[in-house]
Amino acid sequence: MTEPCETQPQIVAPHPPLTHYYRSEVERAAFVRDIFDRTAPDYDRIEALLALGSGGWYRRQALLRAGLAPGMDYLDMGVGTGILLRQAVRVLGDASRATGVDPSPGMMALARSLPGVRLVEGCAERIPFADASFDFIAMGYALRHIGDLSAAFREFHRVLRPGGRLCILEITRPEGRLSRGLLRAYIRGMVPTLARLSGARRESARLWRYYWDTIDVCAPPEQLMSVLGAAGFQSVRRHIDTPALSFLSEYQGCKSAASQKG
Asked: pTM (2 decimals)?
């Protein structure tokens, strides 16, 4: 008698392949790593000038709203240059409790300016830590750059301790045509222009155009929350801090306190 095949989990990509940047989904991860490595030296400078309301104060408040507190062990997925990680350390009061993971060594090289934190190369779909290692996981504007939301969210759930909390910050495409057009013009048009005028590398302008293109076709909030729920998270919600900045989404969730394994 033939044994039934084990059903493989369905891959849930954050957006369709953007083939004008890479030829196939297989090449996506290499493209993303390369463009972030190339633009790392410009990233903080451009982001600080054009933060769209998501600067340090906003990030810190979002972490507090999601439940980050001193004494927690914190994981920053897609840590990049450490913009969100720095705010987490301010809340924690102890850099040794903060860990960052990113597939781009070029970006993480800049995060090493923050003493005491642990930085590890890796990806969201295969987090290089044991089950139940952290009390809090955050991801700041990196969700659109991973390959499989379902696998990543299962990994988030696995490495969280029972009762652990999750905070994902992301830019959501506005629903209104006018708002969408204005945000597109800002991110895809004005930001690349200002990047070039400020002396940034040519690839930095391309990165911000790529940013908008991923935002424009990213999975809607309802789907993201559904995938989080399917991964085991409870109390999943989308928080919008200010109606005027409704494109800034904070996705929150927690792991059941009764969970004994990932």
From this structure: 0.92
